[in-house]
Specification:
Mean pLDDT: 97
Largest sheet: 5 strands, mixed
Number of strands: 33
Structural class: mainly beta
Distance between the termini: 9 Å
Low-confidence stretches: none
Strand order of the largest sheet: 14-15-16-17-21
């Protein structure tokens, strides 16, 4: 462990690294107790009541030492939903291009900061009412001169693009979707860029300049949390709530409704991911079964499963997405256990434990691994 830096508050937002900076967002309980206010959304379960106001902050740390460089309060509010018992009021990860830092707190606003912590702009996005009042979590996508926000909830859902430097809304398109927690991704293919967003009714690709739907494909379940990945001419999207689904969609010539066509190269209907997102590494696709301690590897091109799912002994609930570097796969569970496996033929190389709770996905930069816990941010590095 190179360093451990205590954070001002909890959150599930993953850290992001650029140059010699690490950025992270937090939500801090604040003020006198309130309520408790109990959620009354249809089907609410496993929820916690609202008992405190929250301060929503962005933090920058020095990459070499973990020293806090600045902390900026962006909003203060009493949340209108309590969220899931395992959830967080700071679940959307920040994004940066080295000039602008984007921080989203959903119903509390979308913010852009400079690298010194100055607020460049703020956009009010409205009030999100999530399914089962389980809270918000989709991360904004910063790509080129645009910031893309996926706003799927129990009201009018949409995808919008905002200008990076000014926050001006460039376009907004309606999405016929219920709540999802997945984040949009930018896919570069055949010299063009597509913005792809998963959803219960459709996986959709959008023109980043206009918001026009380029193609769409049905087949996922409700409560989509897993974000898609793309590579090798294929787009992969999965879900696992009431039904299980994992689709591989060919990008060459993709247009219109691809549901049930040859563009869907393969489909998997068992042992698919729910909370953790997919990992595409080299020629293989890796994913957890639901959010349990079983890791599956399939050949990305064909969906073939060379070996049985690998049981991650000592790991249980996994919310963090698996990550990979230097021929190794890293999987961290909520109790702080990280399994290190050899990529390709899955083989356990190490099992390590940190005394903290982990739901955020790890960030990899150079020879360093950054893990965000409930209480602290950890930098693990090669000697």
């Amino acid at each position: 462990m190179r360093w451990k830096a205590l954070l001002p508050g909890p959150g599930h937002a993953s850290p992001v690294v650029w140059g010699e900076r690490v950025y992270v967002t937090c939500a801090l309980p604040w003020g006198e107790p309130v309520g408790p206010f109990v959620d009354d959304a249809p089907g609410t379960h496993d929820s916690v009541p609202v008992t405190r106001a929250q301060k929503f902050v962005a933090v920058a740390l020095e990459r070499a030492s973990g020293k806090e460089l600045w902390q900026v309060e962006l909003a203060e509010a009493i949340p209108h939903e309590g969220g899931h018992v395992t959830g967080s009021y700071a679940s959307a990860s920040p994004a940066t291009d080295g000039e602008v830092v984007i921080a989203s707190f959903g119903s509390r606003g979308l913010f852009a900061l400079d690298t010194a912590g100055g607020v460049l702009w703020r956009r009010e996005l409205g009030r999100m009412q999530t399914k089962h009042a389980h809270g918000e979590g989709s991360t904004p996508l910063l790509h080129g001169e645009r910031v893309f926000v996926q706003w799927d909830h129990e009201g009018d859902s949409w995808l919008a693009a905002f200008e990076r430097k000014s926050g001006a809304e460039l376009w907004r398109v309606a999405r016929d979707e219920e709540t999802s927690w997945a984040s949009p991704i930018a896919v570069e293919h055949a010299g063009t860029t597509q913005i792809v967003a998963s959803g219960t009714k459709r996986i959709r690709a959008y023109d980043p300049a206009t918001g026009k739907v380029l193609w769409e494909c049905g087949g996922l379940s409700s409560n989509v949390v897993c974000s898609p990945v793309a590579g090798g001419g294929l787009l992969f999207a999965g879900s696992s709530y009431e039904t299980q689904a994992l689709l591989a969609i060919a990008l060459d010539g993709a247009q219109g409704d691809l549901t049930g066509t040859d563009a869907v190269r393969w489909v998997r209907r068992r042992a698919t991911p729910y909370v953790p997102s997919l990992l595409l590494y080299r020629d293989s696709l890796y994913f957890l079964h639901h959010y349990q301690g079983f890791l599956t590897r399939v050949e990305a091109a064909s969906g073939a499963e060379p070996e049985r799912a690998f049981r991650l002994e000592g790991l249980d609930d996994v919310y963090a997405s698996p990550v990979a570097a230097a021929g190794r796969i890293y999987v961290t569970d909520r109790s702080g256990v990280t399994a290190v496996l050899a990529a390709g033929k899955l083989e356990l190389l190490a099992r390590n434990t940190l005394d903290d709770g982990f739901s955020a996905s790890a960030a990899l930069a150079g020879r360093e691994l950054f893990l965000r816990g409930t209480r602290a941010l950890y930098c693990l590095a090669a000697p």
